[in-house]
Structure formats: C-alpha cells, structure tokens
Amino acid sequence: MRCHHFESGECRSCTLLDLPRARQVAEGRERVETLLAPFLATGAAWQAPIVGAESGFRARGKMAVGGTAQEPVLGLPGQALTADLCDCPLYPDGVEAVLEGAKALIRRAQVPPYDVARRRGELKNVLVTASPDGEHLLRLVLRSEKALGRIREHLPAMLAAHPSVIAVTANIHPDHTTRVEGEQEIPLAGASSIAVRTGDVTLFARPQSFLQTHTGVAGDLYRQGAAWISEILQERTAADTPAGEASADPENPENPESRANPASPAAVPAPRIWDLYCGLGGFALHVARALPSARVTGVEVSAQAIDGARESAAAQRLPATFLADDATAWAIREAAGEDGPPDVVVVNPPRRGIGPELAAWLERSGVRDIVYSSCNPTTLATDLAAMPSVRVTAGRFVDMFPHTEHAEVIVRLRRTSTT
Ligand SMILES: C[S@@+](CC[C@H](N)C(=O)[O-])C[C@H]1O[C@@H](n2cnc3c(N)ncnc32)[C@H](O)[C@@H]1O
C-alpha cells in the first residue's frame, strides 16, 4: 500500500509500511508463535494466518480535531495535528467524503476545536463507523453541550449532502483525559445502530460499542471460532456415543432432534457455550448460527453493545442470549449455580487480557475447551501462564492491524491435566 502521508513523514501510525506485506505478516506471525511456544501442547501446530485487505478495511475512524472552527484539521489522536488525514488509505471508500462533510458542519456551526494544552474549545474528536454496504455512523465528541444548538441547526444540510450518514450522535466528554470519548451520548439524527455484515452474520454497531478494526478479517476470525467449537462438540458427541449406537443424526450431531429427544437413550443436554467479552456478539452469533441446538450466552460490560447483540440475534433469529455484566463476576457466579460450568468458553478480552481472577477460575473450573481470541499476545501469554492445566492445541495469527506491530491471535485451548 502506498500512502503519501507516510512517505512525507506526516503520519507514522502505520509503522511497518516500509516492509513488504508478506514480510509484515511473516514477521508478525513469527513474533506471536515464538512468544506462545512455551504453551503449545505436544504435537500442536500453527495454522495459516488470517489475512485480509491491506487498505480500505478500517471499520472505525477516530480523528482528533485541530486547527480552527474556520479551518478544521482532522488528524490522528496522539500525533501532531498539522496534516489533515481524511484521505487515509486505510478507510473504505466513502469515509473521506463523510469526514469532509463533518468539517463543513464544523465550519458552518462554528464549533471551535478543543485545544488540549490550553483546555479550551469544544470539539475533541470525530468518530466514523463504516459498514461494508457504504453506510456511516458519525459521532462528534464534545467537551460540553454548548455548541449543540448550532450543530443541530446545520445538521440537516450536512445530512442532505451525505445521505450515507444514517445516524449522528454527540458524545459529551468533559474530562481532560486521553480517553477518546465520554459516557454521555446524545442522539442527534437517524438510526440507533448501523448494520455491519461481518462473516456470516450482521452486527448492529452502536455508539459506545466495540467493533473489530478490520471487518473482513473479523468475519474470518468469528468463523474460525465457530468452526473449532463445532469440531469440539462433534468430538464430544462421538466420545459420548456408546460403540455401535449411532446418534439419531450422525451427519449432523448438532441437529436439535438428535440431541434433545428425551426418549433416546443417547439424549444429552444441549451444549452450553459462553462468549465472554462478547461485544456485539460476533463469536456468539456465529456459534448460534453454526450450532442452533447449543445454548449460547454472551456477556459484555457495555449495555450499548448488549443492545446491539440482542438486535442482531432478533433480526437474524439466532438463538443466543446476551447479558450486560462483568465477565469474571458473571462466570464465577453462574458456574456456581445449578447448571455449573459450560462446555466451551470463548474469551475475547480487551488488551489487558482476562486477568488473574478469571484465569484462576478457568484453571480450576474443569472446563475442557476454551477459545481465546486476543488483541495482545503478551497478556495472552501471562494468562496462559496462569492456567498451567490448559495448553494451545491450535492457533492462528490474525492480521487485524495491517502495517503495524499490533497482532490479534486466536488459540484453541484444551485441558491436558486436572488441577
Ligand atoms: C476486544 S473487545 C471484543 C468484543 C467482541 N468479542 C468482538 O469481537 O467485537 C473486548 C470487549 O470486552 C468488553 N469488556 C471490557 N471489560 C469487560 C468486563 N470487565 N466484563 C465484560 N466485558 C468487558 C469491552 O466493552 C469490549 O466490548
């Protein structure tokens, strides 16, 4: 990928852009595989990396605002706001036009950019979510509600010029912190969510809900998680079926009729799958789609993300339940209940990892199969060190963040010894 901002030195956020693409992936893969080598089960092998488009892939644009109300500059948070980066080649077609539309709105409504050093001004960030179908959700992060009246007045003209923008909100972020957004979200126009086709499902992204950076790669990541879980459950069904006694539907052991027929001597309870840190439900919805007889529960701390996940499940008639809660507290509480721990746990935590408490619970829980998708292999290694009874039986480097050293990795874990 060529980028004139990188070549001129205006933007260095794609730190590996000088490296040929194949080398970026090979070296990223090597780093991850070396780091996780101590946790591999005997005989386990890494599978081919998940790689997607190198440009036009970014589902989320986060722009910091500099310049003046008359001449706003949209750059990247944490970099000098000297060059306007609206034409960043990582964004899909259409995002640049929406960002230009946002700048026109800033000019017309005379919204002064927030000056971090002087703690003055109003507009901190402009956030765009782009769907693969060319729709956009636009969010303006403001220090206060002071400029809202003027923004509301000039918004209709902006929306008329940019019909791809199906929703606009204001996020109020009064604190002087490095966080990109605040707690309060004020709808200004349009829909409450944007439909983002991802893999085999549609996610309904909302303000304040996490969305994976690379929509194409995320789809393959979710498919991989669901495929491993299908394999795990098929192995279990085969192991649970007494020799010579075929399951009611050997071609499809997950067929509800073959699993839930109380008259059948081989009847077993529907498998239970937990998707912890589920966000908008990408893993849970893929599992529910692949294994309709499973009892799939997604847990996530963001109520907005849970609303989006429920919207997806309802719109696609997928049998998954979603709850807003702390993943660790919920898992420990739920496992102590009547049904006990689930058959398979999926975890996809933020960069800090699952942490010692959830790792300790997983270690002692007896859960045999875990799928761990991590956006920080270093904290994944720490979490694996805290779970000596489970080992990596399969893994894939996931190129979620092309041209950077950031890496996603998905691993399948299996209990190899009891604690
Ligand atoms: C890396 S994202 C993954 C989300 C989702 N699995 C996906 O693929 O989009 C991590 C998610 O964990 C959520 N989260 C952070 N802390 C949490 C906690 N203590 N309990 C539950 N969810 C949490 C975040 O809101 C975020 O949605």
TrEMBL record:
Transmembrane segments: none annotated. Keywords: Methyltransferase, S-adenosyl-L-methionine, Transferase. S-adenosyl-L-methionine binds at residues 212, 277, 300, 348. The active site is at 375 (nucleophile), 375. Residues 238-266 are annotated as: Disordered. SUPFAM superfamilies: S-adenosyl-L-methionine-dependent methyltransferases. Gene3D superfamilies: 2.40.50.1070, Vaccinia Virus protein VP39. The lineage of its organism: Bacteria, Bacillati, Actinomycetota, Actinomycetes, Micrococcales. It comes from Brachybacterium alimentarium. GO terms for molecular function: rRNA (uridine-C5-)-methyltransferase activity. The keyword Metal-binding does not apply. PROSITE patterns: SAM_MT_RNA_M5U, TRMA_1. It holds the Pfam family tRNA_U5-meth_tr. This is 23S rRNA (Uracil(747)-C(5))-methyltransferase. Belongs to the class I-like SAM-binding methyltransferase superfamily. RNA M5U methyltransferase family. Residues 274-334 form the Methyltransferase domain. One of its GO terms (biological process) is rRNA base methylation.
